[in-house]
Amino acid sequence: MKPTIKDIAARAGVSIASVSRILANKTGSFNAKTGERVRKIAQEMGYQRNETAATLVRQQSNVIAAIINNTPTPFAAQVIHGIQQQANAAGKRIIMLSAGDNDARLQHQAIQTALQRTVAAIILVGMFPDNQSTALLTAAHVPLCFAATRMPEYPFVSSDDYWIAYQAANYLIEHGHQHLALVGIDQGPTGTRRQAGFQSALTNAGIDTPPVIINGDYGRKAGITALSTLKKKSVSAVVAGSDMVGAGLIQAAHHEGLHLPDDLSIVCIDGTYICELTTPQLTSVTQNFAQIGAAAVDRVLNHSVVTDIPTVITPRESVKRIK
Question: What is the mean pLDDT of residues 271-298?
């Protein structure tokens, strides 16, 4: 006879409800040691969770959880807009949970909160989860999709960070610039791919001058603090890791009395509303974040979607052509 949750509860000396929550990877009124002991007993007794029944419950749910990493850049609002529109069209409701800004504790908390709701699916916006978070997601067997971050081992919808940086650098090269910098990127998967694309554009153009790479967190302050280094290196043009980095560069340049784009040309990555609030307005590699959000909903609902969402150059006022 197959063991039941009731059998495990009797042997562990805890309630049936506690066993149910532990084996479903949900939180509850039990500590880590109790959870570990219950899972061990379940394994020893040969218990197997009825995944068919669990899947049926999820399929009957009309709620999709969107877990959002609060980055210093404003792209997430557009992703959420795309998620909401597509979810509404599919008859689904959205609950939104904050995961802080690369905060492991808040990530775990948000994922656990979502799993408590018996959601139909989870969309993770701008997140790179740690091992504990990925273990929670894997054990839950809930359909999921990463939006605006590239996670090859999981379903994802994003722009191609390698191609984004290649486009930006190539645009500056086509406008006559030879001394380029890439500013404000992190050293994680996104920044690594962008640096590779940036370098490839220079190599393919035959530019052997070493590029200037300045790391940051994609925020405005990263652009402000980078300007002094750019002046020392005699850089003529910059690929900014985000619109906020570009805005920070412009702010610092105005403070230093520089005239843009005559003294410094800038192409930023993202193409949000920030680009039109600066003087000069920022030329950008524009990502379609609303489409990314919509495609993420389609993906968790088992629809066929394109993984890489195309990007385009949006010319504005921040790039000077050098003869």
Answer: 96
Residue 17, C-beta contacts closer than 8 angstroms, at least 6 positions apart: 28
**CB of 221 within 8 A of CB of 248?**
yes
Phi, psi of 97 (to 5 degrees): -130, 135
In this prediction the pTM is: 0.80
In angstroms, the CA 301 to CA 81 distance is 17
What is the pLDDT averaged over residues 42-63?
61
Residue 100: partners with Cβ closer than 8 Å, 6 or more residues away: 69, 70, 106, 107
- 104 vs 260, residue with greater confidence: 260
- Tell me: pLDDT of 218 over 90: yes
Q: d(Cα 13, Cα 279) in Å, to the nearest integer?
A: 67
Q: What is the pLDDT of residue 270?
A: 96
